[in-house]
Design a protein that fits this description.
alpha/beta; three-stranded antiparallel beta sheet; 12 strands
Length: 221
């Protein structure tokens, strides 16, 4: 019996699309339940969004003033308190997930499956190596929790507007570290989407030669 926990990624009160892509990945595991956990100082709005993702069984919230900013050192001990309820713990292969999920894997004493891009069964996955030039099949050991980051570029987002799933507050009493604190967030400007979550990315290398050459290739595609 598989039970999946997905750690929601969000910013400024809005759920990142990477979470819905993790739900799509989780659906391929044929899990008995797919839960999403939202950590925030005020998780209600984000939890409401997560509850509307098709396939989500339940949304669990962990409200704490310390969760106002996504700090891996602060999030990890709280997630570990509920991790025992699940066979799979997933996060997106974004900066957020790459920072958080290795901590969870280390504390659970398992090797992380990174950048999972395909599911063969509940323990077996495909992931890219050598900058995507080769694909390797990895198998997580049976009887231990699977901690993985999901390569979001490989999955469409699960549909929104379903449900809503049940939203419940999780009871957590973990001691939170004080050696890490939030100082500030510097975000790039511009109106372009985040490459990690953009629906379509068009890339042209040096061989294109010029802006005009790139335009021709793009139009042909």
């Amino acid at each position: 019996m598989s039970r999946v926990l997905i750690v929601a990624e969000h910013l400024n009160g809005q759920l990142n699309q990477s979470t819905a892509k993790c739900v799509r990945f989780a659906s391929l595991l044929k899990a008995d339940a797919i839960d999403v956990v939202v950590l925030s100082d005020d998780p209600a709005a984000v939890a409401g969004e997560a509850a509307g993702i098709a396939g989500v069984t339940r949304v669990r919230t962990i409200a704490n003033a310390a969760n106002a900013h996504a700090l891996a050192a602060v999030y990890a001990p709280q997630i570990l308190e509920i991790a025992g309820d699940y066979t799979h713990i997933l996060g997106p292969s974004t900066t957020f997930g790459k920072d958080l999920m290795p901590r969870i894997a280390a504390k659970l004493g398992v090797s992380q499956v990174s950048d999972a891009m395909a599911v063969e069964d509940a323990q077996t996955f495909k992931r890219p190596i050598y900058a995507g030039n080769a694909i390797v099949t990895v198998k997580a050991p049976a009887g231990k929790p699977v901690v993985a980051t999901v390569r979001t570029a490989s999955f469409a987002a699960a549909a929104m507007g379903a449900g809503p799933a049940t939203v419940e507050a999780a009871s957590v009493s973990a001691s939170l570290p004080t050696h890490t604190r939030f100082v500030g967030l510097a975000q790039g400007g511009g109106d372009r989407p985040d490459l990690q979550t953009a629906r379509i990315v068009v890339s042209g290398g040096r061989a294109v030669g010029s802006a005009d050459g790139f335009k021709v290739i793009y139009e042909l595609a």
